[in-house]
Design brief:
about 300 residues; alpha/beta; Rossmann fold; Arc Repressor Mutant, subunit A; five-stranded parallel beta sheet; globular
Length: about 300
């Protein structure tokens, strides 16, 4: 796992919270914009905790059928046909002795949230029906793009689950709030990308660094990586500069800072996806009501969700 890089006050505060969270076994709530590295932070806490020798299991809750989540926690999953190799029952069982991270807790059905609460409190865990109930031996962490109390007020997250998960809360700042870290992130990302290409790492002109630092970076770390990837291209340049940036714009405009600074195609797409996800959360997953609230047809909504892999 790559280390977390921090020089900015905002990220140094996060590192301090990570250190303190690793010393206890309480549930953890991690929230922030997409692409800020929430999963990496959760894994860092796990690796520094007493559970480091145990498994670190990520459950992408928004993609799991409700019946399987419910069955897994209640211990009645035997005999169900798995929708995929990574169904939630496997995730929960695999997390025993370690940490279970639930991505986007706001997308978990409310009927399942009571089971998550039980596991977070160590009352019981998912187990095969024939083995009986047992105390859960796992640490629960959860991520969200929004502060959880906002989701409680909208009726998306149970209030009692919120209070359990909020024992330790970490807000991850977006790149625009941690500009001091960007030069280090640029060099670290270039090192990784060049390693994948088996090429030497180029130097970076100061003008380019200054430009990258000043970008707002919607999309955060993945967007920065895409930008640097586009600039590297297939060449063997020894020094990256503004000329390489301009060349990358003509090859892949949507993966570059031009779309970041101009706020055109990518930003509109991000806003559209965010609006759809918020509508689904408010409507508790009811696609008909969400489509009506958005002013689009259910067919259009389904097409967009399929396009995004949701």
């Amino acid at each position: 796992m790559r280390p977390l890089l921090a020089k900015s006050p905002a990220m140094l505060e996060v590192l301090d919270k990570i250190r303190r969270a690793a010393q206890v076994d309480s549930p953890v709530s991690i929230w922030g914009e997409e692409g800020t590295g929430k999963v990496q932070i959760a894994e860092t806490i796990h690796r520094q905790s007493r559970r480091a020798a145990g498994p670190f299991v990520v459950m992408r809750a928004g993609r799991l059928p409700e019946e399987f989540a419910e069955a897994a926690w209640s211990g009645t999953s035997a005999g169900l046909v798995e929708p995929s190799a990574g169904d939630c029952a496997n995730h929960m069982m695999a997390a025993q002795g370690g940490t279970l991270l639930i991505q986007e807790i706001t997308r978990i059905p409310r009927t399942c949230q009571a089971k998550i609460l039980e596991a977070a409190e160590g009352r019981r865990g998912g187990a095969p029906a024939h083995s009986g109930k047992q105390r859960a031996d796992l640490r629960v962490m959860a991520t969200s793009r929004y502060e959880l109390w906002e989701s409680v007020e909208r009726g998306v997250v149970r209030e009692d689950l919120y209070y359990r998960l909020a024992v330790v809360t970490i807000r991850v700042p977006p790149l625009r709030e941690r500009k001091e870290d960007i030069p280090f992130l640029v060099r670290d990302t270039l090192t990784e990308l060049c390693g994948e290409r088996d090429k030497p790492v180029p130097a970076i002109e100061p003008e380019l660094i200054r430009y990258l630092v000043e970008q707002p970076w919607p999309g955060n770390l993945p967007r920065l990586r895409h930008c640097l990837d586009a600039m590297l291209g297939d060449g063997d340049t020894a020094v990256l500069g503004m000329a390489d940036l301009r060349a990358s714009l003509s090859r892949a405009d949507e993966d570059s800072p031009s779309s970041v600074s101009a706020g055109r195609i990518d930003t509109l797409a991000d806003l559209e996806r965010d609006a759809v996800m918020r509508a689904l959360e408010v409507c508790q997953g009811n696609r008909t009501k969400a489509a009506e609230a958005l002013g689009i047809s259910v067919r259009t909504l389904q097409r967009k969700l399929k396009q995004w892999g949701v």
